[in-house]
Write a structure and sequence with these properties.
single chain, about 160 residues, alpha+beta
Length: about 160
């Protein structure tokens, strides 16, 4: 499970522009949360929201975690802190602080988690291979952004099935 951002055209309205501004990407973006399986196949895509919104908040809005059975292990990044309270079988990487650095065992565990989570990153990269996903969307019709994301995810899943 991971979130990804995609550039959108900068709104003229200052209030709306501030809502869409992502400090992480330094531009106005739309954000989506996606879930994949171990074969990089996209299983879930949330609706596109403002880039300022946090990954965990998007996941809570989609309310998908309650539909995941407890036998399935959820591998998430640190952007989903608190998901382990909603789903008991969740693995999150440990965070280090200045006072408590990570032990060698915790570093090994984080490396294992990131090695499994890389499949989501590969799926995101596969979806963004479609040119319209990397460039700013200039169409202002509602839900057209979600249509492009669903289309590119479907093409990515078709590509995986073909191989």
């Amino acid at each position: 499970m991971d979130g990804t951002e995609r550039p959108v055209q900068k709104p003229k309205n200052t209030r709306r522009r501030n809502k869409m501004y992502s400090g992480k990407k330094r531009q106005t973006t739309g954000k989506v949360v996606m879930m994949t399986d171990e074969t990089r196949r996209v299983g879930f895509l949330s609706l596109s929201k403002n880039g300022r919104r946090h990954d965990k908040r998007l996941l809570d809005k989609a309310d998908i975690v309650r539909h995941i059975t407890s036998t399935v292990t959820v591998w998430a990044d640190t952007g989903f802190q608190g998901i382990n309270k909603q789903h008991p079988n969740t693995l999150l990487p440990k965070k280090a602080t200045r006072k408590t650095p990570l032990s060698p065992e915790q570093k090994k565990e984080n490396k294992l988690i990131s090695g499994i989570r890389i499949t989501v990153e590969h799926a995101i990269a596969g979806i963004k291979r479609l040119g319209c996903m990397n460039q700013s969307l200039r169409n202002r019709r509602p839900f057209i952004d979600d249509t492009f994301i669903l289309l590119s995810a479907g093409l990515w899943n078709f590509h995986l099935r073909r191989d």
